[in-house]
Known about the structure:
Blueprint: E1 2-6, H1 10-18, E2 23-26, H2 44-56, E3 60-65, H3 74-87, E4 91-94, H4 97-106, E5 112-114, H5 123-133, E6 137-139, H6 146-155, E7 159-167, H7 178-183, E8 199-204, E9 207-212, E10 215-220, E11 235-238, E12 241-244, E13 251-253, H8 258-264, E14 268-271, H9 278-297, H10 304-312, E15 319-320
Parallel strand pairs: 1-2, 1-14, 2-3, 3-4, 4-5, 5-6, 6-7, 7-14, 13-15
Antiparallel strand pairs: 7-13, 8-9, 9-10, 11-12
Helix pairs in contact: 1-2, 1-9, 6-8
Amino acid sequence: xxxxxPAGNFQSLKKAVDNGANAVYIGMKNATNARHFAGLNFxxxxxxxxxxxxxxxxxxxxxxxNTYPRQKNWKLWAQAVDQAMALGIDSLIxxxxxxxxxxxxxxxxFPIHLSVQASATNLESLNFYHxxxxxxxxxxxxxxxxxxxxxxxxxxxxxxxxxxxxxxxxMAEGRCYLSSYLTGESPNxxxxxxxxxxxxxxxxDGVLQSRxxxxxxxxYEPHENAGYPTLCKxxxxxxxxxxxxxxxxxxxxxxxxxxxxxxxxxxxxxxEGRQRSPAYIATVTDIWRRAxxxxxxxxxxxxSADRHKLASLSEGxxxxxxxxxxxxx
Length: 329
């Protein structure tokens, strides 16, 4: 399996490449990608520099143009495709059918990877995208059980990529309306879940409060680690109890089921985290490179120290294998 790692800037790209990534995925400095944060992502100069560095080290570079264009801004998405292809990107990660069709108007064979934002969870969807747009790979949403992933991987006409580690979205990607409900801006169109312009931090009597569009999402005592405010992972008062109403912060970690994913025929494991630091990328890539090599070569697996390190880098300092462990389908 390939190890596909995130890069929010050139330094993160170098760390991923240096620590054993087979491919690195990036985004441009606009709303065409689903990690559109200030200070994040790549300029054309950065992309050229990153491609050169990665290719010199036998690593591919993918560009995520995986949000959904609105008609009035269509040119932005078209320009992003033109620019990425002209710069020599290895593949485009796309969710929108119109963007895929635009790519195919330019090239019959340019590699398209179906983004997780497309929410393709069944064989008929994969067949549709393959037959109509010639996709080569599909990234599955993080809502499928191991049995479902195995079944798809064995029947799919294209390669299957799954998320292996990082922040866990509890929704079916591409179908989340919570952010747009609260702020009017959606990660599916503007590329940001909890846009920074709507985030406020306030301290009252030593308690740190986080607000999203003036709605109190969570508050933290001095001894608690504060997380970035998202509506789905906020704490609310429900029937007199303050609790995580939807999902408590935790990270996905599929390291323990890597042999099963390998046996299923999964082509690539993806690490989430383009918004994370270069140091984070270096550590996670190194541990996962060794873990995947160990499965392939049947050598010693990562140490307990490695596992502890991954847990310490996780949301809420805890991990789960998420929907993979479901026994039902």
